[in-house]
C-alpha cells in the first residue's frame, strides 16, 4: 500500500527523480518522465591502513537491519578460527526501538565483549577515526524486495574510504561489488562467517587506491555537477517556457 501511495504521489509531478532504474520499475513509474540521479558519497582520505587482520566496521541505523545475524556470523567465525584470529567488529549507530541494547545483550551472551564494540551514535565529523582503525566495511541489509532495488549508500561510503566490503547480495550491491573490492553474501549467520573467511584470505591483496578510484564518478561533486544540476536546470527552463 505504501508503494502505491508513493507511486501515485510521484506521478502527480511532470518530472520524477529516482536513484536507479530498478527503483523506477519497483514503483512502476513512467520511464519517459523519470530521471535517474544515483547515490554517492564523499571521499574519506586514509593514508595508511593496517591490513594484518579483520577489523570490521558498520556505520548506520540499526532499525530493521537484522544486524544480530551479522553478529552471530562473526561469532561463528571467531569460534571456528579460535586463537588464530584477532578479528574485531565495531557497529556505529543506534535506533529508537532499543535495538542497540538488544545487540549489546547478544554480544554479552556470545562472550564477545572484547571483540565487538557498540559505541552508539557518532557525529559525522568524528567518524574518520573509525574508518582509520577498521579495514572492512559491513554493508548488511536484509534481502527483501524493498532493499533489493535500493542502491547501497553504505557500500559507496566504504568504497570512498578505500575499504573492501562484506555485503548482502542485493541486486544493487551486485552491480558494484566484485572480487576486487569485497564479497557478496546471503543474509544469514553462516553466510556472513563464510564471507569473512574469504575476506581474511584476500585482505592483504585489496588496493585501497583502486577501490576509491573505481567509484570516483559517484562523488557528490561529480553527481551534482554532471547529473543533478543539469536536471534541475532543465526542469526550471521547461517550467519557464
How would you briefly describe this protein structure?
The protein is of the alpha/beta class. It is built from eleven helices and eight strands.
Based on the model shown, name its key terms.
11 helices, 8 strands, globular, 241 residues, Rossmann fold
Walk me through this protein's architecture.
By secondary structure, the protein is of the alpha/beta class. It folds into two domains: 2-40 and 219-240, no CATH class; 55-213, 3-Layer(aba) Sandwich (Rossmann fold). 44% of the residues lie in helices and 14% in strands. The chain has eleven helices and eight strands. It has helices at 2-11, 21-26, 67-81, 99-110, 128-133, 145-148, 153-159, 171-176, 189-202, 208-213, 220-240, and strands at 16-18, 34-36, 55-59, 88-92, 116-120, 136-139, 165-168, 182-185. It has a six-stranded parallel beta sheet with strand order 5-4-3-6-7-8, sandwiched between helices. Strands 1-2 form a two-stranded parallel sheet. Helix 3 (67-81) links the parallel strand 3 and strand 4 (88-92). Helix 3 packs parallel to helix 4 and helix 3 packs across helix 9.
Question: Might you state the CATH topology name of the largest domain?
Answer: Rossmann fold
Structural class: alpha/beta
Distance between the termini: 36 Å
Please state the overall shape, judged from the principal axes of the Cα atoms: globular
How many E-type strands?
Answer: 8
CATH architecture heading of the largest domain: 3-Layer(aba) Sandwich
Total tally of structural domains: 2
Q: How many individual helices? A: 11
Largest sheet: 6 strands, parallel
- Report the mean per-residue pLDDT as an integer: 92
Amino acid at each position: 500500500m505504501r508503494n502505491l501511495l508513493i507511486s501515485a504521489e510521484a506521478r502527480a509531478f511532470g518530472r520524477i527523480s529516482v536513484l536507479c532504474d530498478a527503483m523506477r520499475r519497483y514503483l512502476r513509474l513512467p520511464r519517459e518522465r523519470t530521471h535517474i540521479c544515483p547515490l554517492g558519497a564523499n571521499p574519506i582520505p586514509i593514508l595508511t591502513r593496517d591490513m594484518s587482520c579483520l577489523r570490521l566496521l558498520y556505520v548506520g541505523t540499526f532499525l530493521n537491519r537484522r544486524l544480530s545475524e551479522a553478529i552471530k556470523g562473526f561469532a561463528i567465525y571467531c569460534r571456528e578460527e579460535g586463537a588464530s584470529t584477532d578479528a574485531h567488529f565495531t557497529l556505529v549507530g543506534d535506533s529508537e526501538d532499543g535495538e542497540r541494547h538488544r545487540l549489546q545483550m547478544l554480544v554479552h551472551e556470545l562472550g564477545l565483549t572484547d571483540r565487538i564494540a557498540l559505541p552508539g551514535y557518532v557525529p559525522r565529523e568524528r567518524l574518520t577515526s573509525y574508518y582509520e582503525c577498521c579495514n572492512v566495511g559491513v554493508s548488511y541489509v536484509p534481502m527483501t524486495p524493498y532493499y533489493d532495488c535500493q542502491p547501497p549508500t553504505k557500500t559507496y561510503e566504504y568504497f570512498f574510504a578505500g575499504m573492501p566490503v562484506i555485503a548482502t547480495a542485493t541486486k544493487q550491491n551486485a552491480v558494484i561489488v566484485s572480487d576486487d573490492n569485497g564479497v557478496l553474501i546471503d543474509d544469514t549467520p553462516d553466510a556472513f562467517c563464510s564471507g569473512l573467511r574469504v575476506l581474511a584470505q584476500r585482505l592483504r591483496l585489496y588496493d585501497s587506491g583502486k577501490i576509491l578510484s573505481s567509484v570516483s564518478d559517484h562523488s557528490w561533486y561529480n553527481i551534482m555537477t554532471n547529473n543533478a544540476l543539469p536536471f534541475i536546470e532543465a526542469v526550471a527552463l521547461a517550467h519557464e517556457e
